[in-house]
Amino acid sequence: MSLRTRINSFTPWVNLRVKPYGMALNNVIMDLLSGTNMKALVESLTGRELKNVKSFDGLTNQQKITRMEWIVKELRTCKLIPEDVYVDTRMVAMRGADHVFEFLWRLVSHDIWFVWERAEFLQHDDEILVSLQFKWIPEPPPKEKKKKTKSKQSLLSGFGSASVVSEEVPDQDVSEEPMSYDPFPGSDIMKQWKAKRPKHFPPPEECILEFVNTHLKMSKDGRQLHCMSLDDLVDSRVLCLLVNSFVPNTFTPLVLLNDRWTINLCLRTAEKMFYCSSPFDSEDLAEADPMSVGAYFGFFFMIGYKFRQCKAVITRLAWLERLIRECDHDLELLPQMAVNMQDLKRKKDIKQKIQEHKEAIERIHKTFDVKYCQEWVDHTQKVQKDTILYIRETIKKRFETLEVPRNITINDLCLSLVINLVSKI
User: Contacts by 280-283 with C-beta closer than 8 Å and gap 24+?
Assistant: First the structure.
């Protein structure tokens, strides 16, 4: 495991988390404890404002350690880090690489399990997928109402200001039962689609492999492949089919060589489609570090499922509008003045269907940002066309030029950089 690989894999996950706050990190080790990046990351996980933690800039080492202790306590309160898991807050605050990545891995694992519980729901491509919005930032908890008090003067307490006594006024609007708080409304419905739920979460690596193998089965070519370990993700055919499962017909694995060029092309294309970027490449994937690969593909499936839902929104709206047009056409075929009860009932049923379709469209518009979904789908189609043209032009050249990074044998170079010297032509 190299430090470079872990930085390249954890940085995109953190950026996905802090993107709603208008932030972006270049290096998770150097930038996480700068400014309010850590504050934004924790708030995106808990949905609660960290009032006692501000910017890390200008703080002494002891002040940074204290704030990390507050952060870990907040994460434990929200059950993001188990009580029996030890976090060395001093080493995290001092940017100790191993401790920072162990700390982040606990949070990445939470996100992987979060997606794993909802995976069956997110793998639909019909009206079920657009019934609830998939998001990973929890709703903020309701604010507690301050108890009302009123002041009255008591002669038994003395004179002047000492005679003023405050007493609590019962609020008739507030029930005695505590207000129920659901950080992810509708999450129970999403989880119901998972038929077999074990008592304990499986290891994050197994969850990633489950995602990958499920998406491979979505295509005819993918049914012939099966990933047994994270090492198998170095196969460019797997990455091509993963991208195709979100954006069909982007890659043709039988035409492309199983090498570093194809792997990097798949990674960069997916990132362009999903409005994100990272330096993670074939060399990082070849190391097969479980934490690094798990962090990157945790990020990959989170943003991939978000796009999948946006695409389903546009598809569902187009389908509902088509159904309305069909109902309007059927309505026009009926006589304007119904002459019998059968025509009258038929006309009533058609009008009821039109109303149901319009209500479904209205619900989708209230739940999703349809304009953003349409722009994302259009952007993805443009990236897909550009990628296909790029592949066509590159195949004509047949060769790629690269620099040898150090004194190394040809065999070791091919293994470390995933180079395939075999030509299909």
Answer: 280/8, 280/9, 280/12, 281/8, 282/234, 282/417, 282/418, 283/5, 283/416, 283/417, 283/418
